[in-house]
Amino acid sequence: MDNIKNVSTNESPSTSKSFTPTTTNTRTTIRTSGENMTKYYMYYTASRMNVKLHKDDASAPAVYYLKSVYSWTKLMLELRRGDTKASPMIAFAKLRMTSRNMQIGKGDDYSQQGLDNQIAWDELRRAKNILRRSDYHFSTAEGSEMGKKAEFDWRKDRGKVAATGYECVDKTGRAMAKMFSGGALNWSKAGEIEVAEGLDKSLKETLITSALAIWAMEAFAYQSVFQGYASGPGGKKSEAANAHQA
Length: 246
Hints:
mainly beta; two-stranded antiparallel ribbon; 1 helix; 12-stranded antiparallel barrel
């Protein structure tokens, strides 16, 4: 597969596990944690409009910063590599309020103003099937040496009621990424994103951007009014959560 690098592992073939999606009556059951996944903890800033992403450890310095820009007609998401809203922009997503589809672009949107027709957009499209209207599909050439687009599907876990959960799979059914919302009443933790290890960096960041786009569309508008997904015994907020309100 073009998009995946060879990754060494200490596991023997007999102990290595692979993901197989389970579908029953159009309901997909999603595992809540994955092997060989890199986890990013999402915490709101003081404004609750922006989010910091911390790799592997919630108390570690943020490696990505998501800035949200709203207007009456559209939502703009800016993914920045660093821990502040002034860090370099590496990807962006645009949503018009009259649509549930979202366009994803690479680089700095401001340096490409007026060049929309030259941007290689990846469109995150909402499923047309009435039974899976909260699922999304997109294709991207990111991570492909041949420039060939690979297709991905973000499938919602309809077994979750108290939080929004999604899994991204490729055409073979392999789990490539996962996203969990923090819940509407979780005022510190915005959620978690997991991405398969061994991916090309550009593909990894495209998957993160698509996860954040769905999080913005689904979590802001439809997430549960209950406390959402939380790690740790009893779902209690960790001490680290209080350190991210800045």
